[in-house]
Amino acid sequence: MSVVAADVSKWSLRNVSFELPPGSVTAIVGSNGSGKTTLLNVLAGHLEPESGHTSIAGRVAYVAQHKPMYKSFKVANVLQFGRRMNEVWDNDRAEQWLDRYRIPRKLQIEDLSGGQRTHVVLALALGSRPDVLLLDEPLAELDPLARRKVVRELLTEVNDNGMTLIFSTHVVAEIGGVADRLLLMSNGRLLVDGETDALLEEHVLYTGPHASKSPVEGPVVLAKHGRSQSSYLVRSGGTRIDEPWTARYVTLEELVVAHLERGQ
Amino acid sequence: MKLESLIWLTWRQHRWSLVAVVAVAMAAVYGLLTTEAGDRALNNSMPIAGFYALMVQLAFGAVVGSFWGAPLLARELEERTYFVAWGQDVTPVQWLRGKLIVFGGLAVLLGALVGNGDGFVGATRSWGGFEANSLVQVGYAVLGLSIGVLIGLLSRHVVTAMAATLVVFTAVRVFLAVMVRDNYLPSDRVIARWEDTPQVPDRGLEVARGFAGPDFEPVAVPDRCVQAINENTCMRNSKAAIGTYIDYQPIERLLLFQIIEFVLCALIAAALFAVIFRLLRNGGGWKPSRSHRRIGPLVPEDSVVTAEAEPSSEPEAAAEPEPRSEPESEVAVESGGEGEPGSGDQTEPETAATRTEG
């Protein structure tokens, strides 16, 4: 699938192909302008790819990055809107979400804070009982406490209802222990696509004496050379190594950063 | 989707512009009807209330276009709330159809009322009061609405769309009135010999006048007569013409012409609405979400071909090294959702698989 940015002779997405299993939680990670939002817009059906296609089984709900909502609506009107505009509507689910975060129903959307607005938009998305929920930087405007709570609640929804969750972020710390799949993007290309655990097991950082060649077989993600030391992050699948080299697994953050650095 | 829901949505979103336009229109109707004096018109003068009401009538189509039509799509696009509006189960086409039924219905109703008087002489039908007619005003209102919605869709900006709608609608109206309207049907002609002057029959609309030749057709004035002190005398003495003529549209055609103008406006509006729905349905960048996507047979050949074609259209792609040795196309991790514990709650045993092809 490829997308050309409107009016700009630039590919914002190129040759992106992936397939996600139901009930999975996928994080789309990438630097600014790497095409995360474009990809989500295409998946949500708001943007048509130049070539290729997407297909999603079931109903989709999409929470866009800027959390759009009619400013003149009261919170209660948003629920009414969801009920009237959807064939399937779970009012309790939406109400519960609003109750949980104590969103006043009588206020207009324009009087809410950014975080409160996020909750209203999330409540609308969840109330429509989507099979696939697309979230574009959902946690950006939430405080650290609410972030954890929202993530936990969303994971509960995934587990209880078999919902598939796809969210984008550029904060790697947000995906640890949350996402079981990772889509790593850079410059409109898909750098890495895989299960988080498998990726972490595959990537090994080898440190040892200065060497111009990787000590083990496998694609080198990133090589760094100091005065007397070299380190290679290799997608080796966990090959063991002898002295004087040492090997260790990397954290998710190291992995992501290394790939992004290489992708540039 | 139920029409009632879309009526609710339209009212909830646009209630102030709905109320404002309806209020102005009703005030105008009141002004137009109460000031009509008919033959009792004092000293041939017009009451000021009637004048203002007539101004509203003159601008009614433009008001509908600018305040109802233009923001309808432009506001959604400008504030990006189309993510909300078209991200539900209602498709964009259903959504727009519902809103247009509300706005269009009201525009027709108000147009019929606003065109019901002329604030002055009233029942006396005259060419001067051509636009003081329900049919004509309905046509203008529908035309204004369609122009506004289309411009809103194209400009994606509310203020631009409102201003552009005003300009375009006015231009269309002026063009119709000045260039087109007089020629809906071939005009009648009266010819008078030199001894007489031609008279337009009662309340007829003069379209053209000049000198008539021996075959009763208009003749051009020769150069020497243009320069002459008295054109008439010159034409007569040089026997270039047999007399003078006036082309006119008789008053009996007034209603027919009003119907023609209404039909013309309605046809243009219908064409514009067709364009709007077409733009909204395919392309314009906004595809309906949800409803059009169902998991189906993938056509890899198709997508492979299109992906192959890309580097040729952009040379730098070929030069760029592949960032990873991992094969990028067709990374497939297969799904198996039926065995999930959670899938029991779902109403349909659909597998929620997401796949994207390059």
TrEMBL record, chain A:
It comes from the Bacteria. Gene3D superfamilies: P-loop containing nucleotide triphosphate hydrolases. InterPro entries: AAA+_ATPase, ABC_transporter-like_ATP-bd, ABC_Transporter_VariousFunc, ABC_transpr_CbiO/EcfA_su, P-loop_NTPase. GO terms for molecular function: ATP binding. Signal peptide: none annotated. Keywords: ATP-binding, Nucleotide-binding, Transport. Residues 3-212 form the ABC transporter domain. This is ABC transporter ATP-binding protein.
From TrEMBL, chain B:
It comes from the Bacteria. It comes from Lentzea pudingi. The chain crosses the membrane at residues 16-33, 53-74, 95-114, 134-154, 161-180, 255-280. Residues 286-358 are annotated as: Disordered. This is ABC transporter permease. The keyword Cell division does not apply. Keywords: Membrane, Transmembrane, Transmembrane helix.
